[in-house]
Amino acid sequence: MLALLAVFAAAASLLLLRRYVLNIRTRSNQRRESVFKELGTSGDKRVVGFFHPYCNAGGGGERVLWTAIASMQRTEPDVISIVYSGDVDASKQEIIQKVKSRFDIVLSPDTLHFVWLRKRHLVEDATWPRFTLLGQSLGSMVLAWEAMNAIIPDLFIDTMGYAFTFHVAILLGGIPVGAYVHYPTISTNMLARVKSRKAGHTNSDAISSSSLLSQGKLLYYRIFMYYYAQSLRRASFLMANSSWTKGHVDSILQHNDTLLDFVHLFSPFALLRLYLQPSHQPPREAKIVYPPCDTREMATFALEAREPVVLSIAQFRPEKDHKAQLRAFETFVRKHPEYKARGVKLVLIGGSRNAEDAARVDGLRDFAKELKIEEYVEFVVNAPYPEMLRWLSRSSIGLSTMVDEHFGINIVEFMAAGVIPVTHASGGPLNDIVVPFNGKPTGFHATSPDEYADHFHTIFRMSPDEELELRLRARTWAVQRFSNEEFEKGWNDSGWKKWLNTSA
């Protein structure tokens, strides 16, 4: 009897869900007509929705978003781009102007529409001081629910890294989904770090020092990895921004866990398989599409007579590890104090998205004082594009300390501008960008403050001819490998057009 009641309850729940979904789709069609009317276009357009809650942040991920949309506007005039954004404090025109100022990308307002998401705080670090991965992923699903309740596109593309939104888009919209993956939400590196009890950005000292807490976190990561893999498999196509990211995404796509498969079979989520099961074969691998780097103006900068400036360009986010940059620079001037008289300085340029980032900048200023290097350090927050270019045209060294940086557009910009890169020996900078060209180096890698400091010293004492050759070699490689044209070709080869044309 209880089993029969359970079957009836499940059937009733599915019928109610189906009715709810149909109502959302009906309302969405009505709103689409309103959007078309607002844009002054007919109702026979196709709609691509881009899920990017921080579209106004001005970082490398945003350059990917806007370059893709600008390319679509030029080549696919019958496609309307909708950006699901949490930047409710900015207008459409203000965002378009910032894109022009920051990236020199021109967007047409005629085929661009924004859906404003009011619950963006649900994907912010500060909202989830514990179980951050799980909290942000669930928060992204709420945001996707909000997005689909506003307008359902014909194709949903996540360009920020929120794979759990795929379930919502498929459930409510019945549409194909795809993604440009900058960085996997979880990776085998993260699991290895917890297993080895190594402290880091994703593994605090309190957990790494405790065997019990480490085992608990490993279980948490195991469960999260399982459902993250389930999410990625819902995609119709996947792009990755580097070989490092592709390697991790591919391994996650092939990930399996027999025990969790069994548990999942008898969980409440099993009922949703009727709605969420993709009608296509899940992707077996991601396609590498290197991010766009508009290097045209940077490639015109003079390579000679550079100032003794170590330059960092990175958003003031925790994973960028600006403290490591300050430590490396302090080590350098302590080991080689003679450079102080030559006017050496560290310049940190970066975007500050919110109050948490602003507080982080204040903390970095205090840390520079603690290290007694504040007079040699300059912070340039939310710099306009022309100011960033000025620093790129005069600096000698480009510094990046992020561990497992997924790609590193800033490093490509260093190289195109003739700024010699010194990066962490991991991720995209190690495997894709700062690699030998014609059998000779294009920059340096390091893992410790001493190694960074030694590379700074090596660069500053190079002969003019040796220095010029290195700068020219780095520029040549960057310009030919990471152009806007290469990105647009890869984006169009990803298959997004096919899935747009096959959507209902």
TrEMBL record:
Pathway of action: Protein modification; protein glycosylation
Any Gene Ontology biological process: protein N-linked glycosylation
Keyword hit for Kinase: no
Keywords (A to Z) from UniProt: Endoplasmic reticulum, Glycosyltransferase, Membrane, Transferase, Transmembrane, Transmembrane helix
Domain (ALG11 mannosyltransferase N-terminal): residue spans on this chain: 46-252
E.C. code: 2.4.1.131
Gene3D superfamilies found in the cross-reference section: Glycogen Phosphorylase B
Superkingdom of the organism of origin: Eukaryota
Membrane topology: Single-pass membrane protein
Cellular localization per UniProt: Endoplasmic reticulum membrane
Glycosyl transferase family domain mapped to chain residues: 302-463
Reaction catalysis annotation: an alpha-D-Man-(1->3)-[alpha-D-Man-(1->6)]-beta-D-Man-(1->4)-beta-D-GlcNAc-(1->4)-alpha-D-GlcNAc-diphospho-di-trans,poly-cis-dolichol + 2 GDP-alpha-D-mannose = an alpha-D-Man-(1->2)-alpha-D-Man-(1->2)-alpha-D-Man-(1->3)-[alpha-D-Man-(1->6)]-beta-D-Man-(1->4)-beta-D-GlcNAc-(1->4)-alpha-D-GlcNAc-diphospho-di-trans,poly-cis-dolichol + 2 GDP + 2 H(+)
InterPro entries: ALG11, ALG11_N, Glyco_trans_1
Gene Ontology terms: cellular component: endoplasmic reticulum membrane
One Pfam family in the UniProt entry: ALG11_N
Family: Belongs to the glycosyltransferase group 1 family. Glycosyltransferase 4 subfamily.
PANTHER family: GDP-MAN:MAN(3)GLCNAC(2)-PP-DOL ALPHA-1,2-MANNOSYLTRANSFERASE (PTHR45919)
Job of this protein: GDP-Man:Man(3)GlcNAc(2)-PP-Dol alpha-1,2-mannosyltransferase that operates in the biosynthetic pathway of dolichol-linked oligosaccharides, the glycan precursors employed in protein asparagine (N)-glycosylation. The assembly of dolichol-linked oligosaccharides begins on the cytosolic side of the endoplasmic reticulum membrane and finishes in its lumen. The sequential addition of sugars to dolichol pyrophosphate produces dolichol-linked oligosaccharides containing fourteen sugars, including two GlcNAcs, nine mannoses and three glucoses.
Protein name: GDP-Man:Man(3)GlcNAc(2)-PP-Dol alpha-1,2-mannosyltransferase
